[in-house]
Amino acid sequence: MKIYETSTAPSPRRVRIFLAEKGLLDKVTFEQLDIQAGENITPEFRLKNPIAKVPVLELDDGSYISESVAICRYFEALYPENPLMGVTPKEQAEIEMWQRRCEIYFFNIVGMGFQHTTGYFADRMQPNKEWGEQCVKGAAKFFRVLEAQLSQNEFIAGDSYSIADITALVTVDFARVIKVRIPEDMPNVLRWYEAVKQRPSAKV
Amino acid sequence: MKIYETSTAPSPRRVRIFLAEKGLLDKVTFEQLDIQAGENITPEFRLKNPIAKVPVLELDDGSYISESVAICRYFEALYPENPLMGVTPKEQAEIEMWQRRCEIYFFNIVGMGFQHTTGYFADRMQPNKEWGEQCVKGAAKFFRVLEAQLSQNEFIAGDSYSIADITALVTVDFARVIKVRIPEDMPNVLRWYEAVKQRPSAKV
Questions:
Q1: Chain A environment of B90 (Cβ under 8 Å)
Q2: How many domains does the structure of chain A reveal?
Q3: CA-angle at B59, arms to B71 and B18, nearest 5°
Q4: Scanning A101, A158, B36, B61, which has its CA 20 to 30 A from the CA of A94?
Q5: How many other CB atoms are found less than 10 A from the CB of residue B147?
Q6: Do A69 and A98 reside in the same domain of the chain?
């Protein structure tokens, strides 16, 4: 199997960390795309993913799976050992809930904050600086939700490391580009961050 | 089990259709919240969901699951009959991919278009009309992706009705509020829409 990605972009990093945590990095090869140069918005790449985003997983039968979490779901279903998306119905639901909270109200907001304040993709979208600045402020607010949850739990979705931790870690690291950092008065978020960034998977 | 919801809002409708398709509506009772009046942003409701959105599922053990897709995941795992999220790894991944495409690039964009152009929640957020108008235009573009997919497939994620169809149907219906409608020159999207809206689940 092969993954088309951009190693410096946050979404592909989610998949790499997921694979590293499950011990599956050797199941795939990686092909790099220069997304700033637009290698993902060519007609050829749109045949792989009409949404024109990375990462995209190419299966051995020649079909394609895009969307980071869908790629993770594929590997979780194929290799259920070291589960990162829960096993019981309640675990699955709680992890999905936290993964989605971290994605919708943090990862996506940081992403829009970045794109709209920096104009990084101004060749293919219309940046709205005011909206971008609102997103930067909104992203910082999510730390309060994380602090409350991490004051009661070792990891974001409970006692075990999960895909929710991956989404949050990748977001915290990427948020540096818009100068959003974990506030000093959030001891539990800081404790969690130190723990997850020490894991070998965080380096991939 | 109990679901806190607002029957006129799009997200709770996703869960109701999902439960109807699986024949599980009788497993839950529903309690209505007036979100326009702010019944979801009270300190009491934030104990159920710190993100302050509906729907929220209350389990019999007193714990809460929020985020529509996480609630659906819970019921899918608990009652695997009539699967709407796939069975094999590839089916699960393809349905998750299409569910996410329909959600991220269509449902969420219509939602922002609505909130930012109408100022419906202006008491709790800062509407940005220009951004809202960009979203309205962006939402309409997604029909091209759907038309291409539905020209090759009966349903959005392939041969079977799935949670991806639910997300898309709810979005098409909700998009009327921002005057975004299926274009006349998209015969396959129109054919799909007629079929999914005729299903009894679409009426719940």
A1: 59, 63, 65, 74
A2: 2
A3: 30
A4: B36
A5: 18
A6: no
